[in-house]
Amino acid sequence: MKLDPGLERSVLFTHLDARESAALHDIISLEHRRDGAVIFHQGSSSENFYLLLRGRVRLVRTSPAGKELTLHTVEEGHLFAEAAVFAHLSYPATAIVVGNTTVAAIPRDPFITLLRDRPGLALKLITSLSAWVRELAKELADRSLKESGARVAAYLRDERSRAASDAFALPQSKKAIAGQLGMAPESFSRALRRLRDLGILVVDGKRISVCDLSALESAAEEER
Question: Could you read off the pLDDT of 82-97 as tens digits, one per residue?
Answer without folding.
Answer: 888 888 889 999 999 9
